[in-house]
Amino acid sequence: MAQRGEPEEGAAAESALGCDRFHGVAVGTTAVPGGEGAGSGAGRAGAVGNDGGPGGGGNGGGAGVREGHRSGVVDGAGGRGEYRPQGAARELFYAREAEVLLSGPAGTGKSRACLEKLHLCALKYPGARGLIVRKTRASLTESALVTFEERVLPPGSALAQGAGRAGRHAYRYPNGSEIVVAGIDRPSRVMSTEFDLIYVQEAIELAEEDWEALLTRLRNGVLPYQQLFADTNPSTPAHWLKQRANTGRVRLLESRHEDNPTVTAAYLATLDRLTGARYHRLRWGRWMQAEGAVYEEWDAARHVLPPAVREAAREWPRWWAVDFGFTNPFVWQCWACDGDGRLYLLRELYVTGRLVEDVAREIRGLTTGEPAPRTIVCDHDAEDRRTLERYLQRRTVAAYKAVSPGIQAVKARLRTAADGKPRLFVLADAPVRRDPALVEGKRPASTIEELDGYVWDTAGGQRRAGEAPLKEHDHGLDAMRYAVAEVDAIGRRIARIY
């Protein structure tokens, strides 16, 4: 019997031809000619055209291919260049456990491997149902769907015709298989149907309740096994995913840069310039806690809410907070306050290389029809404030910028109150979009992404631990601090004390 992660029994003959078997479909570098099923037990099947679907009938268990077009992951399922899974990616292809997590640093090909497996199973098993899911549907448009359509599907694939990526609901195969696209923020498309395979991109974004809800949808029964599999960059050791792996409920596969032959020295050099926990996680794939975290109260599972909250917040009073920047991010945040005094970050612009007047125009467009802000609290740059006021046609106030009292106010809101809930939340889809330059540089692209790496400055013996935070990747957190200080009247209360 083959060991875990090795080709199944009967693959030796195919390996001699330069390929392996994945559930009866060739995986490797040799084309499977002329509509013949790949591997023992596959039988004859209809030829698979360039759209990955069967070109005719067949009584075999697998999908054949036309001559010159290789099956599944042999060449990325479509002639875009040979794809041969290596290391942890290869183990993923043979894993049949109910829960599997492919974890590792940035740039190891995790998402590509997951999407190749999903596509190959859709080819192999007529009538199979798969799901590509992330915390929000919008975040898939420029991430997983780009990889799927540009790297996995063949050029000109009929599967990618019709609606653009932003409006796509599913990929429907001629053999009756279907891969649905959805977000946890729109649960009706997920919880009202059944699947054989569910792929979660960036699983650390999910709460454990989301993960377990997805498990209940694995009952379509077309594949010989049902599986929830995911990719992720590592987080803290205490994250529920790592704990689930530690107890054996999730099989953890750890990918490395050696698994991705296309990774470049320039890309690795970008990762080498990272610092702190982000360096250890994105360069080396380590699950580690940022030492001296300022906001240790932050827990995404409790503080990040689904977009549906925005509807309830329609009439709640608003506060806007701004931290100016150009080379560094310009951050605008729209906060709402409910009847119990809890704050919600509804929307955020986090952009680089934009003039103040251009951002102001976008803010006006984003907030048309919404309640006017009670206060716009800003960083102290006088020229930028005047420009913002001119283009927003609204007055602003200078933020209360004392760091320590502001941090303490934010920490107090992040703690669980007497009613069992914290007093500060962030909507999962608050970021309007992700800045490409920040994403490319592996820098935080939203306030949520800043939180875990925001640590106390203890270097050089110049400051005592806990006295001041390290001044790095804190632009959204500065704006958050301004908003909380304004709503809670921190500066005015301190002024009265003295």
Written description of the protein model:
This protein is α/β, with parallel strands linked by helices. 30% of the residues lie in helices and 16% in strands. It is built from 19 helices and 16 strands. The strands form 3 sheets. The chain has a 7-stranded mixed β-sheet with strand order 5-6-4-7-8-3-9, with helices on both faces. A 7-stranded mixed β-sheet has the order 10-16-13-12-11-14-15, sandwiched between helices. A two-stranded antiparallel ribbon has the order 1-2. Helix 2 packs parallel to helix 3, helix 13 packs parallel to helix 14 and helix 15 packs across helix 18. The longest helix has 15 residues. The protein starts with 11 loop residues before the first helix and ends with a helix. The N terminus and C terminus are likely disordered.
